[in-house]
Amino acid sequence: MNEILPIPERVINELRAVVGAENALIDLEDRLAYSIDGTWVERLPQVVVLPTTAAQVGTVVVIAGREGIAITPRGSSSGLSGGALPGRGGIALSMARMRRIIEISRADQVAVVEPGVITGELQRAVEAEGLFYPPDPSSLGVSAIGGNIAENAGGARCLKYGVTGDYVMALQVVLASGAIIRVGGRTVKNVTGYNLRSLFVGSEGTLGIVTEATLRLLPKPRHTLTLAAEFMEIEDAAQAVTAMLMSGVLPVAVEIMDATTLACVEDLLRMGLPLDVGALLLVSADGNHLDGVRADLALLGQVCRDQGARAVQVAATGAESDALWRARRSIAPALARRKPNKLGEDIAVPRSRIPAMVRAIRRIAAEHDLLIPIYGHAGDGNLHPNILCNKHDSEEMARVRRAAGEIFAEAVALGGTLSGEHGIGLLKKEFLEADLGATQIAVMRAVKDALDPQGILNPGKIFPTGVSDW
Amino acid sequence: MNEILPIPERVINELRAVVGAENALIDLEDRLAYSIDGTWVERLPQVVVLPTTAAQVGTVVVIAGREGIAITPRGSSSGLSGGALPGRGGIALSMARMRRIIEISRADQVAVVEPGVITGELQRAVEAEGLFYPPDPSSLGVSAIGGNIAENAGGARCLKYGVTGDYVMALQVVLASGAIIRVGGRTVKNVTGYNLRSLFVGSEGTLGIVTEATLRLLPKPRHTLTLAAEFMEIEDAAQAVTAMLMSGVLPVAVEIMDATTLACVEDLLRMGLPLDVGALLLVSADGNHLDGVRADLALLGQVCRDQGARAVQVAATGAESDALWRARRSIAPALARRKPNKLGEDIAVPRSRIPAMVRAIRRIAAEHDLLIPIYGHAGDGNLHPNILCNKHDSEEMARVRRAAGEIFAEAVALGGTLSGEHGIGLLKKEFLEADLGATQIAVMRAVKDALDPQGILNPGKIFPTGVSDW
Fold first, then answer.
1. Cβ separation of B110 and A350 shorter than 8 Å?
2. ipTM (interface predicted TM)
């Protein structure tokens, strides 16, 4: 799989026969459209294939295996670690045409979906039935469920509700052999054999290709309220996060935005965000009883005041709350206006170590003369220090890389990890061993080799190769 | 691993040197004490080893690997599928001496424990800190966390809170090579590499031996209220379960007990359970605000009445609520008074199929002239039809086996699975292929072979061998 050989015309014709000529794309302009994701990296596929059924996927995988061609599945390509980029050429397998919501069952509280379904569309569809699909990556307006599953995407509400994998009950998966299996089931509990379901979730398309998912749903809480708490010092905000989590109330979300982030978002949205503070916390609570939710939020607000918040404002209306959350979701486009590129990091640390992590990031930013806005899911200890950069400035990119390495090392030293919700993909694999150690990586490699002995499924991802893909 | 050879004296001496002579037991009476679990099956180990550290476990595994000796870890041996029985002789590795609660962190909301810690002890310890470890297998007074992890144990509260695996953040695991790794971490989110954590959970000691676990904790809800709803027909109770789950309230638990179960429990406890009903539902709701919990429970009670409940009684006091739950937890000893043995099944079906499953079990019981009390976690679709029997009555055991096979087949036909929370172990492996199919089992086998190429870790479990272990 090391040298990328041209794909013979006969194989292209075979792929065309499987999915239709219009769904096997080889023109450069088409392939360029599938060479990018949410990072700055570009990797060109040799052919783009857009199947509509698991059977088609199975046939494509069999062809790829027979010919030794890499195959990289992709959803909406909003990923932030390069997981959906065809790192070794070959086939970009777009799931964009597999986007049916097959079923929403109120009685079983499940949704059955194809991998190309957009997360936000699924949420709206289930909410129309009084149900709730909690995982809410910031990209939910564009990201696909299949990609969410591949990276085990998180989001703000994960503090209370958990990550994508916590909602995956069953998967239909095309294996490297082309065989189609179903793992998990339509039951809440299932301990029949090994938990392959959770093994496929977050495996970034390296162990199998998800062609259908059965997702657990919850009753939709009737009320969600949000507050914004302003802190002069980001360290105080970080302390407030820990204090809130010891208050006895489990918030839905506790999000942090530092001064730089606030300035960038205000610049984009002009919504009157405070620009003279060190950090803003957004805190939500939910439930079926309005009085209870109000009491919970009041308690959380009091904790913020006790920890030095300058002001705590409870959103009085749904519109006010929505505006605050729109600010949060606008961070990525807002940062993009400052510098052309960014390395969006995704470290997670134990919650009690957030203040230490924030201090370390600020020190590293100063030492390398880089602008690193800090925001993220503080309640989960999951921070997104975004290193703003220009990929064409090689001197700056060298500093970015050193800073990224130091941030990763600091997170691991604090008992944390490289990635909370974005995955390893291409961009973090060179840092993997420092987090997991060689023995654990060897176990993962053994699992990979057991499920994909030829190494055709999304090669070049997750595992360190000794070569940087930056 | 097929023929069980004697373990040479020199190897016994080596094991004694590792754990101390008093912790490597070879006398028959000692070994007999480690030959049983919560089933009727007995499997004698050749030596019982009781380590106190992961390093000792690692050394024992190295010795076992070198000598080709099977090694079967066990917690408190309350398991219901034979998972902890030394199916191929060898070493019974008891974790009973590794029972320290190493840490309870309020700030990070985690507990770090050794595998021998009793589940109920952990719950009391964290509740003293205002925290909450939700998984509550009925055996929690005796079962160990390590066993809970090995089988991915559930319990009543799993309806709202999920199973053991949902609370496992990190594991220290001794691999088949004797190497010690840590998988997962102390962060709520972690997508760094494959999810080995969830792969080890529920793997019944066949992939590695857990020597330490970091468990996620929640704030302890301040109020829990319980109601009991009496139904003349069990089918109506089953319908009420589905209706409650569509009400918009997520109960903590919805438990069902049929008439036979109620009679057995009343016989044991003499607490005044209704004996003229078809089924009783126990329903709990919790939260931090008493008014809200009361309103939720009132709504659930109304749903029961709408579905034909003869009476709905809300426990007015904590003591009343505790009594109801004590009844639920007394089912196993109560059934044991009726017949000397029982096959405690553990099927799970989609919630909407509970009525159909109940009807099928009653039909199968009648056809095979067997007493099969039905109870379980109805809210999860996880039923425990217990086939009462006498293991010395071979004609009856043949009927038990046919009935068990038919119940499994019916569960799978209804979109369900063999086991919701007890695992496969020895007793259900012959039914595995009907549930998972040969291809999925081959994938699991490939994972097993990748992690334990010699097959020394708990051999004879999970995978069908063509030989029954009944």
1. yes
2. 0.96
